[in-house]
Amino acid sequence: MARFNLDKLPRCGAKTRSGGTCQRYGNKVNGRCKLHGGRSTGAKTKEGKLAVRVNALVNVFVWQFEKNYDLPISQSDWANAITAYLKIVELSNSTSQQNSDEITELVGLYRVELEATKYCIAEYDGLDALLLIQSALDHYYKDTAATHLKFHIHAPVYPAPYFDNLNGSQAEFRYMMQSMANTGDKLYNCTTRHYLSPMQRMLRQYLKAHKKSSVNN
Predict the structure, then answer these.
(1) Radius of gyration of the chain (CA)
(2) For residue 26, what is the DSSP state?
(3) Per-residue pLDDT tens digits for 69-102
(4) CB 17 within 8 A of CB 189
(5) Which pTM value belongs to this model?
(6) Which of 82, 92, 98, 153 has the fewest CB atoms nearer than 10 Å to its CB?
(7) Which residues contact 154 (CB under 8 A, 6 or more apart)?
(8) In terms of DSSP H, where are the helices of the chain?
């Protein structure tokens, strides 16, 4: 039997804390070693991919602010939401089991886009549009026993007409504060120098004071 040739495997190449690149052998699938995601399949769900994209950000505070005030919903997400909505309208004209299954499959593909834009669609197409979209979403959530809406932490969502908080939900705030703390740890463990914004310095002082008071209590 031929001996396995390690030289044919790629080097990992992931960035290390020292600023260099990892020289361990990577695997054949994604080229990374076991310490840098070589054994990971990566995020599979839409919510998971959103979380991975946001977790890589350095300035989470600025991103969270822009997410709630500028609503940077991408053009592709708008297009997917409108396409899905029009298809739901078409399928809603029949109550057959086949159409019900199609709606479940459709919402499974575009649930994030529909949740993010349903109130905006309702502004232009009336409350019946919101009722229809929400019914389709609830039908999907019940059929799949899905844990929904957690994606709003990682994606912009068009605000609800009532009870909406422009500063974001408590879940968003907790995530932002934890991310800021984690970002701070990454910055101090890195050999290259990073300059924090005044807001980041203020948040860092707030986190230190909060941790100190928690220890004292």
Answers:
(1) 23
(2) P
(3) 666 788 888 899 999 999 999 988 877 777 888 8
(4) yes
(5) 0.58
(6) 98
(7) 47, 50, 51, 53, 54
(8) 46-55, 60-69, 75-91, 97-125, 127-144, 170-189, 198-216
